[in-house]
Amino acid sequence: MRYRCYSFLFISILLSITIQAYAQKYEAENATLTGGATRQACSSCSGGYFVAQGEGKLSFNVTLPQSGFYTLVLRASAPNGDKTNIVAVNETTTDFILGQSNTYASHKVVHTLKLESGQHTIEIRKSWGWINIDYIELEKVDASERFNLNQALVTPNPTPEAKALYDFLLDHYGKKVISGAMTLDSLDEAMWLKQHTGKEPALLGIDFMHSGRGYTWYEDKMPIINARTWYSRNGIPAIMWHWRDPLRSTEEFYTQNDSKPNGTNFDISQISDENSAEYEAMLKDIDYIAGLLKELQEQHVPVVWRPLHEAAGGWFWWGAKGPEPLKALWRLMYDRMVNHHGLRNLIWVWTREPGDDAWYPGDAYVDIVGRDMYKDGDHSSHQIEFNNMNALYGGKKMVTLSEVGSYPDPDNLLQDGAGWSWFMPWYGGYTRDSKYNTVELWRKTMAHDYVLTLDEMPDLSTYTRQSQEPTGIEDELAKKQPVIAYPTIVNHSLTVRSERELKTLVVYNLLGTVVRQQKVTGHEAVISLAGLAPGVYLVQVNSKHVLRVLKQ
User: Fold this and answer.
1) In the CATH hierarchy, which fold is given to the domain comprising 22-141?
2) Would you say the pTM of this structure is higher than 0.90?
């Protein structure tokens, strides 16, 4: 009995330490309030108060006892309509959206952000303002749960070249960032980079913007010529499509509005009517572009294919009528290209916009998720955006900076663990103008060990998978965390991995009773939890480290 009492006390202390490490709450009323944010009494709120943000700002001083990855939870309400505001962690910012609600609810506004131990500043800043904030909470995240990447393309039976390219992207995700540049006039930006840095980007952005329109001044097959040329040099061709008005009423792809009076009013909602002129026009254009892509397939060239980009922004006609017509068009395009035309050389990229969850075509139609970001002169890692996107798609999809104005400094990417697959500045001034990216930064970037350039690329046509180990981002954290266990939600068995030799694994329930005990050797071991009742258990490793797991 004495042993059980001591065990219970020991486990209780460990559990309290574990819980403290995994969640830290900071009341809004204790933050520094400026700009009109006010504390107000609230009997149902934690601490008895909430803060009405109004036009103001809340600033929290946070102390973390451990380095690691953290999720920031905001408990708040938005009683007077949908609201977009800004969260800043040590001056790294991102937008968050709260739907209209008079009820307080918890919202994960920052996912799995890498933070060092010590002092940090977290701010809730006004964009729209006018939300009511109860508290923020930092939850520590198990890094081994962050990534569960899809190992196969969504296209059934992809070409060997498409599979090889996808394997290359998987192998390098989080270990290297792939350099890219957008081109519009042949290989202009790639040649400019070669002239000014001595190196060329590994990925080349290409556009079907002018194809299929009958322009006498344009070589219609220029995009596939450029794609074939780049791939023949072991580069990655990434093709998008600024799809002009399918009815040919205009030559526009931008939606007609007050700022674009000459834009198109093409009605994508007619996607639901197969007898409509709009449906037939969309299908005809899809078939034409599929023919060009088919030529590349016949030439054994895979394509990173990014159609219907930035849909939720609404500025292109394909996003002008809301999410449902857009999703119907995406799925029609996928079905027409893959099943009707037999295209198996495409890697499908969805371009996310903030708050566009309802627009996402679905995991079955998307291989990679991109983000287009234009923040002039901002060379930060965009780590909050990276981690939020990774969490949003369940760690299953690689994420990338599919378009940028100013691209991240690779030192920042390494420091923050933001493992974007590639970055691609837009053409013209975005690539060449020092307002966005200086020549000095380009030279540093193209010579950086973390950055892949064209001269460093392998033969992509024969590339084979090198490793299916965790990504470099996970490996980096594992170096700092001597013992990890996965999964943290256990059905049958738990895997424990340690930098040092494993000797014993002991599992306790919350009463301090030993329910499993096992002698082990090596740096990785598996212990069965089968037959145990659902609940929280603590796993003691080598009598030193204690891990908390949940048995389903």
Assistant:
1) Jelly Rolls (2.60.120)
2) no
